[in-house]
Specification:
Layout lengths: L9 E13 L5 H26 L3 H10 L38 E4 L6 E4 L2 E7 L2 E6 L2 H13 L6 E9 L2 E16 L10 E9 L2 E9 L4 E5 L2 E2 L4 H16 L4 H12 L4 H19 L4 E6 L12 H18 L2 E3 L16 E4 L4 E4 L6 E3 L3 H9 L16 H10 L8
Parallel strand pairs: 8-12, 12-13
Antiparallel strand pairs: 1-7, 2-6, 3-4, 4-5, 6-7, 8-9, 9-10, 9-11, 14-15, 15-16
Length: 413
């Protein structure tokens, strides 16, 4: 669900800290009071949501009247002027989302509101002078301080979401959401900026290229490839589980674990990979401006691939980090099978570790994963970098073909 309607020319980035608490370790009385609060909040939220969706003013008024049963600091979720308003996008939604029927308690992290931090404890107000105290790990407190320093001197708005579901009664989930608003960045001059090209349209994972240009020369600094968790190892583990199940050894457990092993929903890996890319970019920038492009594949082009959900999720993660740090970025796709020099169709030669794209007309060749970077540099109006971007071991037959039938671009040939 969206919060307040965003201002024009302003972008919002956020970071989320998620904590899980075992219900069995919480004070019984305080937890029961929290459950009662959830039931009232969800009922009011459902009535408010559908009244908004159907444009029933009477229903909205009735929901607001019933919201008075909630402690005053939790009524902000229904106040359109509040930072924690929960229904900003309802009228524009094409279809309902499941989360609206499980709306969490949400309130600003402040002493005078529903939740606040006191020393190393998260205090949740329950109304009637009751409260629930949740210990905060030292690592969590350091993380919050670190994220605030990343965007200083901008003001960070803190929101707390407390979630509990009847179908998962053993855990209480707490999310501390940090939000920051900033003016939408304008494109800096590519000459002198750090250029970062990220290509997720790869059978091998995510590829990044870091480069700088002064207008007369484009110099590539680094070309890392970030690969997802080892799929072969996971498939071997799944085969062992299936074999054990076939022999009747803990059949249900082994089949369930085998199914989990064959799935690759590496959301954690995508977030970690994106964080590494941004960290390296700021290290390489050394005070320069940043220009980034994320080449996210068309969903149809990788439909059925085991990396489909993994690669497509990079766009959402990257957009959030771009807004959080205030970096200028685009999300354009560039061809990997068209020669950036002469426009001819590239041919592909497969080696043990690389897919080499080469042009029989002009002699250009490089790792296919790096070809879109050349097209991007060309569109920015910058000189082409020296190719290949990193040393390639070419098959002897391909080496002879390139030397005999082509002339290196830019050579006197």
């Amino acid at each position: 669900m969206g919060g307040k309607k965003r201002k024009r020319g302003v972008v919002e980035g956020f970071r989320v800290l998620t904590l899980l608490y075992y219900v069995s370790e919480l004070p019984a009385g305080a937890f029961q009071r929290l459950v009662e609060l959830f039931r009232v909040h969800r009922a009011v939220a459902a009535l408010y949501f559908w009244s908004k969706r159907l444009k029933l003013d009477e229903g909205v008024g009735l929901a607001l009247e019933r919201a008075r049963q909630l402690p005053s600091y939790y009524r902000h979720a229904f106040d359109e002027r509040s930072q924690v308003y929960q229904f900003g996008e309802v009228e524009r939604m094409g279809r309902p989302r499941k989360i609206v029927l499980k709306l969490p308690l949400a309130d600003a992290l402040h002493y005078h509101c529903g939740c606040y931090i006191e020393d190393n404890t998260l205090v949740v107000r329950l109304g009637g002078r009751e409260r629930l105290e949740l210990p905060l790990p030292e690592r969590a407190l350091k993380w919050l301080q670190e994220k605030e320093r990343e965007v200083a001197p901008l003001k960070v708005t803190k929101i707390v979401r407390v979630q509990w579901r009847e179908d998962r009664p053993e855990h209480l989930k707490v999310q501390i959401v940090l939000r920051v608003e900033r003016k939408k960045p304008e494109m800096p001059d590519p000459k002198g900026a750090l250029l970062v090209y990220v290509d997720a349209n790869s059978d091998y994972g995510i590829v990044a290229v870091y480069a700088v240009s002064d207008g007369s020369e484009t110099r590539v600094l680094e070309t890392p490839k970030l690969r997802p968790p080892n799929r072969g190892r996971r498939l071997k583990a799944a085969a062992k589980r299936q074999a054990a199940a076939a022999y009747g050894h803990k059949r249900g457990i082994n089949l369930a674990l085998a199914r989990l092993s064959t799935r690759l929903r590496a959301r954690g890996w995508v977030k970690a990979a994106a964080a590494r890319i941004f960290k390296k970019a700021f290290q390489r920038a050394s005070g320069r401006s940043l220009i980034m492009n994320f080449d996210i594949p068309d969903p149809e082009s990788i439909k059925g691939s085991y990396l489909q959900k993994t690669l497509l999720s990079l766009e959402k993660v990257a957009k959030n980090l771009v807004n959080w740090f205030g970096v200028y970025a685009t999300f354009e796709c560039y061809p990997s099978t068209v020669c950036p020099y002469c426009g001819s169709k590239l041919k592909i030669a497969y080696t043990r570790r690389t897919r080499v794209a080469y042009c029989t007309k002009c002699g250009f060749y490089d790792d296919r994963d790096y070809v879109p970077f050349y097209h991007w540099v060309k569109e920015l109006g910058l000189p082409m970098p020296k190719w290949p971007l990193r040393k390639l071991q070419l098959p002897e037959e391909l080496r002879r073909k390139l030397l005999i039938n082509s002339v290196r671009p830019g050579s006197p040939g």
